[in-house]
Every structure is written in structure tokens, then in C-alpha cells.
Specification:
The chain is an all-alpha fold and 391 residues long. The protein contains 16 helices and two strands. Helix 8 crosses helix 9 (251-263), helix 9 (251-263) runs parallel beside helix 12 and helix 14 (337-349) runs parallel beside helix 16 (371-389). The relative contact order is 0.15.
């Protein structure tokens, strides 16, 4: 009797995902990896060692490591980050912008723009962000918000259904990417200019988010050295923000992801991380930091909640807990098809077929304004329901 085909909704082990995430850190990159991952890691390490013998980049003397991440230099790092999150996603996600435990102040238009982004009214969000740029030309946030709206569109049109999950994993370089990268570069330039005048946790945070926005696109395009270079710089900015303001919760989103993913790496990837001089992390600290961002963040509670749910799903296989974390986002933003699809995936893993179908159908029925995104969501919903019905 022939063997039954694999169930696309059955779980895969955390190690099948982990090796691709060392540089997902703060830029919402996460991925599914097949069983050939360990071979890839070894091959990449061998290539990195070979490169080092030529350009002295892999094992610099103490104190020189950070200089190898200059804008014009190269970095020989493990190509292990390529999947994108939908938030990508996705790093400015909270409608609640009243300062809680930090000094972060945002322009008054911010809540309305975030509402448009996460309700998936992306065209209106882009226009509102452009208006913020005109009203506050020297503030980085407008450019970051416009990039965030573009990112959701990129994620939507790049996703596929695999391993029982809809996810944006990889796509080629496109001409339309240039606008997105220019927005991040502009935000970074503005933040760094203000840092030179007077260093602040707020501008360090924005600089980190700008670097991260570039890193996640490079990760999606599998440009791994660029992903690593921008990711390391983003982490440095966020650490500096925390040093300047220990109560600033928003940087904990990115730092929490870094800690979580580094700790989920396979043994061979952890050895490589050590030789590459990449800082370690703790999953427990990662969860704690993400939860702090959810409770106390100004701009990042929703995105932190989303990625905590994804991590509980992918790595820890805690589907019920992940569902409890994710559900408030679906309830707050029911017009976001990506949240609906993610909840459907969790219902499917929990064996709740009717609830999974309801979520997939809800995503499929949403009247999205972008034709390409709308078509792609329909394809994802069909693939998800077909996999569910094949069980």
C-alpha cells in the first residue's frame, strides 16, 4: 500500500526552521528550512573561511569586528536569514501611542496611519504617511510608516503556503524595491543627523528600525551578506537606545527577536555563530523582552504580539498559546487578511477544522484594494483550504 502524502498542516521540528534565523532579529525575518539546512550551513562556513583568507574579514582582532560592518565594507556571515515576516512585517504596529514606560513621542497623525496600515488600507496609509513627511520633513517616522505600508504589500504578494503556514519566504529583486529602500535610507539619514547633534534613545530607535527595514527586504531577496550587515547595525542602534533609556520598551521588540532566534539555532549553527563573533541569546530572555514590548511599547506592541505568536507556532509548537496571543490582533484588525490566514493556520494545527475554514474564508472574502495582493490572498486561502480538506 503506497505511503500517504505528507500532511502540509503537520508540524515540523524547530530545528527545521531555526538555522535560517540568526539575522532575522529585529527586522521580522523568519523562515522555514528543509532538512538540507545543516549541509548548507557547513558549506557557507567553508566559503566564509575561504573568503577570510583573502580579505581578513572573518576573524578580525578584538575591537575590529564592528568596523567590518561599515557601509562600504563587506561582512562574511552565514546566509541564514531570508524569510520575511509579515511584519513583516511590520515593526510599527500599535494604535495605542500614548507613552507608557518610555519617553517616545510621535506625531499626532501616527494612530490614524497605523490604523490604515493594519486594517490593510495600504494606499490610504501611503498617502497619509507622505503627508506626515511633508508636515514633519525632518522626522524619520513618516518615511518609516510609508515603508511599512509598502512592506505589507510586498509580503502579501510574495507569500506562499508551505509547512502548514502562509509565509513570505523568498522572491527576486524587483524594480519597485527601490522606493522602499530609499525610504529607509532617508529615515536613517535623518535619525543619524539628529544623533550627531544630540544623541537620544528615540533617534537610536528610529535608526535601528531604518536599518532593519532594509535588512528584511534583503533577507526576502536572499541577499544574505546585506541582510547580516544591516541587521547587526540595527541591533547596535537598539542596544544604544536601551543604554540611553532603560525603560524604553519598543527596542525590546527587536532585541527580543534576536535573543529568541539565536537560541533556537541548531548546534552547528551555534558553533558557527561563535566563530563569526555574533552575540548569543536566550529564548527565555527573548520571550520576556517581547512580552515587555507588548505591555509597555508605544509603537511595537502589535508587531511584538504577532511575532511572539509566530514563534510559539513555529518553534515551540505551542499552538493554543500562540492562538491566544494572536487573537487580539485579528479582533482589532479583522480586515487584515494576513492575520486571518495566520489564525486559520493555528486552528488547523489544533485540529479545529471548521474554525480554520472560517478564518481562511474570511481572508478570501476581504475586499482588498490592491489587485495583485487580492489575487494572491485568494490563492493562499485556496491552498490552505485544500490542505485542510485533504486531512
Amino acid at each position: 500500500m503506497p505511503a500517504a502524502p505528507p500532511n502540509p498542516h503537520s508540524f515540523i521540528t524547530p530545528f527545521q526552521f531555526a538555522a535560517h534565523h540568526i539575522f532575522e532579529i529585529i527586522f521580522f525575518i523568519s523562515s522555514g528550512v528543509n532538512s538540507a539546512c545543516s549541509t548548507l550551513v557547513v558549506r557557507c562556513f567553508s566559503q566564509a573561511v575561504s573568503d577570510a583568507s583573502r580579505n581578513f574579514e572573518l576573524f578580525p582582532p578584538p575591537g575590529l569586528m564592528l568596523h567590518n560592518f561599515s557601509r562600504t565594507g563587506r561582512m562574511n556571515a552565514l546566509p541564514v536569514a531570508h524569510r520575511v515576516g509579515l511584519m513583516g512585517l511590520l515593526f510599527l504596529a500599535s494604535l495605542a501611542v500614548t507613552a507608557r514606560a518610555s519617553t517616545l513621542a510621535v506625531p499626532p497623525e501616527t494612530p490614524a496611519i497605523l490604523e490604515k496600515i493594519y486594517s490593510f488600507d495600504l494606499d490610504a496609509a501611503v498617502e497619509a504617511a507622505k503627508s506626515m513627511e511633508q508636515q514633519h520633513p525632518n522626522h524619520p517616522l513618516g518615511y518609516l510608516l510609508e515603508a511599512e505600508a509598502l512592506w505589507w504589500r510586498i509580503w502579501c504578494t510574495s507569500a506562499d503556503f508551505k509547512f502548514g503556514m502562509s509565509d513570505a519566504r523568498r522572491r527576486p529583486k524587483l524594480a519597485t524595491d527601490q522606493r522602499y529602500l530609499e525610504l529607509g535610507a532617508r529615515a536613517l539619514s535623518l535619525a543619524e543627523a539628529q544623533i550627531k547633534q544630540s544623541d537620544s534613545a528615540e533617534m537610536q530607535f528610529y535608526a535601528g528600525m531604518a536599518e532593519a527595514s532594509a535588512a528584511r527586504l534583503y533577507g526576502l531577496r536572499a541577499e544574505n551578506r546585506s541582510t547580516a550587515r544591516y541587521g547587526v547595525r540595527a541591533r547596535e542602534h537598539l542596544l544604544r537606545a536601551k543604554a540611553l533609556d532603560p525603560d524604553f520598551a519598543d527596542p525590546d521588540f527587536g532585541l527580543g527577536l534576536y535573543n529568541y532566534y539565536v537560541d533556537t539555532l541548531s548546534a552547528i549553527a551555534k558553533i558557527l555563530r561563535f566563530f563569526m563573533g555574533i552575540p548569543g541569546g536566550s529564548k527565555q530572555d527573548g520571550v520576556r523582552l517581547l512580552e515587555h514590548a507588548i505591555r509597555q511599547g508605544v509603537l511595537t506592541p502589535s508587531v511584538a504580539r504577532f511575532y511572539l505568536a509566530l514563534n510559539l507556532h513555529r518553534y515551540d509548537l505551542q499552538y493554543e498559546k500562540a492562538l491566544n496571543v494572536l487573537t487580539p490582533l485579528v479582533e482589532k484588525y479583522p480586515a487584515n487578511p494576513l492575520f486571518q490566514l495566520a489564525r486559520g493556520d493555528l486552528f488547523a494545527k489544533l485540529g479545529r477544522k471548521q474554525q480554520a475554514l472560517a478564518s481562511y474564508r474570511a481572508a478570501n472574502a476581504l475586499p482588498l484594494h490592491d489587485p495583485e495582493c487580492h489575487l494572491h490572498v485568494e490563492e493562499l486561502a485556496r491552498a490552505s483550504m485544500a490542505a485542510l480538506n485533504s486531512r
